[in-house]
Amino acid sequence: MLVFFLFCFLYKSRLSLQYDHEKISERHTGQYYTLPAAHIQKLFPHGLPPRFQLQIKTFNEGCVMVRPPALELISYLKKADYSKPPLRYILYGDVGTGKTMCLSHALHYCYTQGWLIVHISDAHLWVKNCKELLPSSSRPSRFDQPIQASQWLKNFKITNERFLSKVQLGYVWTKRERTEKGQPLGELVDQGVNRMKSSSDVVGAVLRELRLQAGGATEGEGAFKLAVAVDGLNALWGKTSLKKEDRTMCEPEELTLIHNVRKMMKNNWSGGAILTALSQTGSLFKPQSAYLPSELLGEEGFDNMEPFVPVSVSNYNEKEFESCYLYYLDRNWLQHSHSRSEEGKKELIFLSNKNPSILERLCAFL
Amino acid sequence: QSDKFVSAGPQKFTQEFIDKQVEEFEVGKRHLANMMGEDPETFTQEDIDRSIAYLFPSGLFEKRARPVMKHPDEIFPKQTAIQWDAEGRPFHFLFYTGRQSYYSLLHDVYEKILAIERHQDKMRNKGLFTLLTGSRWLLKEEIEEYLVENISDHDYVRLIQLMEKLLSMPYCSLEEEFILKFRKQLEAQSSKHEIPALQYDPQGVAFSVADGRRKTAKASITLRDSGSGNITINGRNYLHCFPLLQDREQLMFPLHFVGMLGRFDIEGSVEGSGHSAQAGALRLAISRALLSFVSEGEVERIRQAGLLTADPRIRERKKPGQEGARKKFTWKKR
């Protein structure tokens, strides 16, 4: 009976809880709220985990569960002082516990508050499987990745359209190309997208400009807060699987993109927040049992990121599991008649150990 | 359309037609009785024949050609009704044998034979039934002991056959005692398993320890009755140890079978072999540990489910002259 009651409550609140972040508090833990479709398209062109994207397509809506780590993050964001250097938050936890989803939730909050979002969906993608590695045009010892950089710039453009006309700057690219001072950011991004060769440098320039301008104008039109979100943070300080032309291994330092992102991670600017999540699944040369920041980031990374605010993400607790199970029932995802019974639920708990991703994969074929 | 191709055969009369004829015969019989001035109720067939012979004298020599008034059942030949339906499918399952009534009669007789045999079995086994299950004939050595004589295998087989013939008689329960002398009881198998002792923690939590082995993998387990469903193996969560669903299902099987999924806390250590063998070893260990938490009848059920049998399969030895245990080298004809 309690289950039925919870289900009614859950169902009602699932419809009503739109994206009003002001109202979401601790008592809403375990409930699902819907991400509006327009927001999903704009904010997460590349950000969500692929399985979740499939789920959105199947269920025709994107529902995210409200969980304590995400709420904690959002509360910190609300209380932080933005005239000081940005706080660094690291989401860490076991494989499949929901770090990327919590990060997306917090990012959605930032988006609705009107922040400018710099979102690197998976830093591991920049550190392996790169087809083209060009020596950098501006600095001799570095390597560019034009495809990844231009892809990222495209996504950045989609996410932050309204800011592109506001910010202004000036740079020199090659002997023939230069951007004058006073040009809007949008032009710069367009140039990066069109001219693949210099796209990595464009990325660096964009990031630097945003850093300089984030805390600059406190009021007026130019004011904005900057949210830097990196998923797979451990890729920045780990090893790469890319090789240089003389067949020696590449260091992450030598990649322009990684170098620029590392500079963003330092807290020598103000007016924003740095949200990151570790990820073992895409990481190179790390054992599967490693999930703590010290293990995954390595010494160098840990020193660089210190001090940070760690936020741990764990498996579902009883209430959250209940809510997830009811959600799947509600969407008719659990077709097998045995899974609707009490015993079936106990079996699901046992087999998945209340791990979100394993539960999702399990329910997929039921 | 198939109606066109059906041969008419001898003329078929419908049942209604025959009924109508019967009615007319009865009415005609009464009329005839009235005509002859006799009582319609007691007018027999002989009276009818006499009356017709009187009313319609005939000079024909052939008796069968003379006018006749008989009951329609005697006049119209006894025919089989139409044996197939509108689509041409026959009603009786033996239609295509050609002689469906004959064969169906044979079938009925055989069914009755079988029923009687079953009845005989029931009667026969009434007395000895309970004692014959769970016992076996004495072995050759035991018979030799009894007779204090040597017998050959052939003799032993003959003796057992004769005993079986005795048992097959309906009234063999008369010789119960004699037969039982030569049968030996089998022990119930479930009592052979030793149940690990139920120990108690300082906090009062019941726990039991058990081992299990499968194919070089050794597992040892502590099953605690604490009320949560945590499983820790070699210090790590079982989700990390067994990322494969199949292995976790193996772990789940004993608990699910008994119905105590969320009740126990399992702490275990495994070593050796691969992930599948380790899962099998753990499963055996869990089932053995569960025996102490479960009633007698459940123990028998668990044994019959096969949870307590140690899997004897081991890697087969590679033989010389072959690639592997079974695979041979390529066979060349010349």
Explained architecture:
The complex is a heterodimer of chains A (366) and B (334). With 366 residues, chain A is of the alpha/beta class. Helix content of chain A is 42%, strand content 14%. Chain A has helices spanning 2-16, 37-43, 50-59, 68-79, 99-112, 146-159, 185-194, 199-214, 256-265, 293-305, 318-330, 342-352, 356-364, and strands spanning 32-35, 62-65, 87-93, 116-120, 134-135, 143-144, 168-172, 178-184, 226-231, 272-277, 309-313. In chain A, helix 6 (146-159) runs antiparallel to helix 7 (185-194), helix 7 runs antiparallel to helix 8 and helix 12 (342-352) packs across helix 13. The radius of gyration of chain A is 22 Å and the shape is globular. Chain A starts with a helix and ends with a helix. Chain B has 334 residues and is an alpha+beta fold. Chain B has eleven helices and eight strands. The relative contact order of chain B is 0.07. The mean pLDDT of chain B is 84. Classes of the chains: A alpha/beta (366), B alpha+beta (334).
Give a brief rundown of this model.
The complex is a heterodimer of chains A (366) and B (334). Chain A is of the alpha/beta class. Chain A is built from 13 helices and 11 strands.
Name some characteristics of this structure.
heterodimer, A: 366 residues, alpha/beta, five-stranded parallel sheet, two-stranded antiparallel sheet, globular, disordered N terminus, B: 334 residues, six-stranded mixed sheet, two-stranded antiparallel ribbon, 11 helices
Number of DSSP-assigned strands of chain A: 11
**Overall pLDDT of chain B:** 84
Strand content of chain B: 5-15%
Radius of gyration of chain A: 22 Å
Chain oligomer state: heterodimer
Query: How many helical stretches of chain B?
Result: 11
Helix percent of chain A reads: 40-55%
Q: Which H/E pattern describes the elements of chain A?
A: HEHHEHEHEEEHEEHHEHEHEHHH
Strand order of the largest sheet of chain A: 4-9-10-3-11
Question: Any low-confidence stretches of chain B, pLDDT <50, length ≥5?
Answer: none
> How many strands, which pairing sense, and closed or not: the largest β-sheet of chain B?
6 strands, mixed
Structure summary, number of beta strands of chain B: 8
Q: Count of helical segments of chain A?
A: 13
Radius of gyration of chain B: 41 Å
What is the residue-mean pLDDT of chain A, rounded to a whole number? 77
Shape of chain A: globular
Shape of chain B: elongated
InterPro entries (chain A): P-loop_NTPase, Ribosomal_mS29, Ribosomal_mS29_met
GO cellular component, one term (chain A): mitochondrial small ribosomal subunit
Keywords (chain A): Mitochondrion, Ribonucleoprotein, Ribosomal protein, Signal, Transit peptide
GO molecular function (chain A): structural constituent of ribosome
